[in-house]
Amino acid sequence: MYGKWTQPGLVETASVTSRARIRERMRVYGRFYRGIVAPWQRVVIGLLAIPVFCPMNTAHAADALADSSDHALADLSLEELMNINVTSVAKRPEKLLDAPAAVQVVTSDEIHLSGVSSIPQALELAGNLDVAQKNSHDWIISARGFSSDVANKLLVLMDGRTLYTPLFSGVFWDRQDYLLDDIDRIEAVAGPGGTLWGANAVNGVINITSKSAKNTQGTYMEAGGGTNPKDFVGARYGGTLAPDVYFRVYGKYGEHDSDVLTNGTRANDAWSMGQGGFRIDAQPGSEDSFTFQGDYYQNREGVITGGNSTTSGGNVLGRWTRTMSEKSDMSLQVYYDRTDLVDPIPGQAFAPAGVLKDSLDTIDVDFQDHFQLGNRNRVIWGLGYRFTHDVVENAPALAFFPPTLDQNLFSVFVQDELSLRDNLVLTLGTKVEHNDYTGFEVEPSARLQWSLTNQQTLWAAVSRAVRAPSRIDHDLSEPAPAYVIVILKGSQNFESETLLAYELGYRAQLTSSVNGSLSLFYNDYDHLRSTSLSPLDIFHLPLPFFFQNNLEGHTDGFELSASVQVRDGWRLRGSYRLLAEDIRVKPGQMDLNNALNETNDPKNQFSVHSSIDFTHDVNFDTGLRWEGTRKINNSGVPATVPSYFEMDARLGWSISGPLEFSIVGENLLHAHHPEYGDPGPTRVEINRTVYGKIVWRM
C-alpha cells in the first residue's frame, strides 16, 4: 500500500540542513497507497497453464455471449448498439444515442474478444478514459486529467456499490476483480456526475454492471497461463432455486509475475489474487424484483520497497425494485462492505520501518423514486446514507489521527427532465450532501438535449461538482508525532475541491455502418490540494508541511470516438483525446510541488481497435494505442514518461461445441516500457506478455 501513497523516499530527509534542501527532496504526499494483496487458497481445484496457440470460434462465442447477456450485445449491429440502454447519466434506462453526456459503453462482447484479464485493462477499451499501468498490480485511471497515485476525482461503482475508500477519496484498483465473463457492460462517463452520484463524481463516473443470474445459467470454466498472468483458473455455475428465482456462484484465482525496473532487474511486485461470490435474482411478479449478491477476496502483492502487502475483504448487497409502469419505478438498495489491509511501511530518517493496518466497515443505504409528472416532466429523486468505521493501526513512519474514525454521509437529490418540445429536453437537478469534514455541499446541474433527427443528438451541460476531503487531507501524520519531528500533516481546515464544468457534445448514427461522438469541455477548478510550509516558518522552522487549498486553474479539450462496420465480420472503433491543463498556485500562496503533483497527464491519446472474423470459427482482435508524453511531478520539477505506441492482440478459435481456445499478447511492440512514474531506478516498466486460455461452457 505504501508504494501507492509514495515512491521510496516520500520524505528523504536523512540530512536536512536548510529549507531549500527540504524542498528539493520532498515528494510530499504524491504517491500514497500501493498495495493490498494476499495469498488465497484456490477457489477452484487445480491450476492449468495453457500457453498454446489455439484459436476460437467467433460464431459460437458470440452466440454464447448473446445468450448470457442481458442485452444480447454480441449480436447487435452498430445501429442497435446506439440504442442500448445506459443508466449512469440519468439513473434510469435511456438510449445511448439520447444520453446528454460523454458516455462510452464497453460491452461484454468487447471484453471477451479483446482477451483482457482484469477490470483496469477492460477500461482501456473505453475511448474517454486515461489508463496507465504503474506496476504489476497498480493502475492510474482518470478522466479529463488529474491522474496521480492518489487520483480522487473519479467515482466508480460495481452493481451500485461504490468502490471508494475514505483514505484518499479514490479506488484501490488491485482490489477490484470479477469473473469477466459475468460482466454485462461498463459505462464510462467523462465529466461531472455529482448531481446524481454525489461527491467525488467530479471528472467522471464508471459504472460496472454484472449480468443477472438468470442470464448466467449453466457451467462456465476457464484456465490458462503464460508469461503474465503466469496462471489463472475460474469457474461459475448458475441454476434455479425456484420458479423465477435464479442463482450463480463463481470463483477465480490468478498469479502474476513481477515486472522490471529501469535497469531490467525484477521489481519485486509479483501478486496473487483469489475471489469468489454469488448472486441471486428473483422476480416473483410483474412489479417486484429482488437481487442479493456478495463477494469475498484475498490478495497478496510484493512491495517494491520490500516485503509483501496483504488485503482481504467482502461485501453483501441487496436491492428491491418495484416497477409500476414504463415511466414509474422505485428502488431500495442496502450494502455492507469490509476491507482489511496489512502494509509494510519503510523507515525514514525520523522513524523506523513498521506495519500499517487498516480495517474499514461501510454500510450504505440508497432509495430512489422515478415518476412521470404531467405530460412534460419526468422526475427522479432519492435519499442516501453512508456510515464508515475506519480503524488504523499506525506505523512509525505513517499514521492517521484519530486512529479510529466514524463518519456519516447524508444525501438527497432531485432531478427533473422537462420536455420543452418533442425533440428538446431540459434537465435540471441538484444533490445536497452533508459530510463530517465540511458540512453541506451542493452540486447542481443543467443539461439540454436536442434531438436533431432520430439518429443525431446535440447536448450541452453546466455542472458543479465537489471532491470532499479524505483522511489524507485531514488526518495524516508522517511520521507519527511520537517521533518528535513530523514532516507532513493533514489540515483540519482543508476545504472541498470544487469544479464548474461546461460541456458540449454531439452523438450520431451517421450511416448504418458508421457512428460517432464528439465531446468538448472546459473545467474551472478551485481550492485544489497543495502542500505548504508550516505557519512556524516565520521562525525559520518549515516543518511540518501542511495540506492546503492553494491551487486553482482550468482544463479544456475534447474526446472524439467512432465505430465503423467495414463489412460483415469486421468492425473498427477508434478514439482520440486532447487535454490542455493550466493548474497554478493562487496569487500570494505557495505549493512545494509547483502545481504539478496531481496533473500527471498526457496531452494527446489515440487508440484504434479492430475485430475481424477470418472464418466462421476464427476471430482476430487487435488494439493499437498511442500515449503522448506524460508530464510527471519530480519533487516540484516537471519530468516525463516518454510517449509510446503499444499493441495488444488476441487470436481465438472454437474447436467444437462448448470448447474455445485463444492466445493473447499484450504490449507486443516492446520487451518492456514505462507507463507511469518518476524517472529513476525505482520506476517500473511493464513487460510484454503472452498467455493462452481455454474456456468451456455448458
Q: Quick summary of this structure?
A:
The chain has 8 helices and 39 strands. With 698 residues, it is mainly β. About 10% of the residues have low confidence.
Total tally of structural domains:
1
Shape type: globular
CATH top level label = Mainly Beta
End-to-end gap: 40 Å
> From the helix content, strand content and strand pairing, which structural class follows?
mainly beta
Q: What is the CATH superfamily?
A: TonB-dependent receptor, beta-barrel domain
Largest sheet: 22 strands, antiparallel, barrel
What does this structure look like?
The chain has about 700 residues and is mainly β. A hairpin with a 2-residue loop joins strand 11 (about 230-240) and strand 12 (about 245-255). The relative contact order is 0.16. The strands form six sheets. The chain has a 22-stranded antiparallel beta barrel.
Supply database-style keywords:
five-stranded mixed β-sheet, Maltoporin, Chain A, globular, 8 helices, 698 residues, 39 strands, 22-stranded antiparallel barrel, mainly beta
How do the helices and strands line up, and which of them pair or pack?
Layout: H1 2-5, H2 19-25, H3 58-68, H4 78-81, E1 85-86, E2 94-95, E3 102-107, H5 108-114, H6 119-123, E4 130-133, E5 139-142, E6 154-158, E7 161-162, E8 183-190, H7 194-197, E9 204-210, E10 218-226, E11 231-242, E12 245-256, E13 260-261, E14 271-282, E15 288-302, E16 308-325, E17 328-345, E18 354-373, E19 377-393, E20 399-400, E21 404-421, E22 424-435, E23 439-453, E24 456-467, H8 471-475, E25 476-478, E26 488-489, E27 497-511, E28 514-532, E29 545-567, E30 570-585, E31 604-613, E32 618-627, E33 630-634, E34 637-641, E35 644-656, E36 659-666, E37 672-673, E38 684-687, E39 689-697
Parallel strand pairs: 6-9, 26-29
Antiparallel strand pairs: 1-2, 3-8, 4-5, 6-7, 8-9, 10-11, 10-39, 11-12, 12-14, 13-38, 14-15, 15-16, 16-17, 17-18, 18-19, 19-21, 20-25, 21-22, 22-23, 23-24, 24-27, 25-26, 27-28, 28-29, 29-30, 30-31, 31-32, 32-35, 33-34, 35-36, 36-39, 37-38
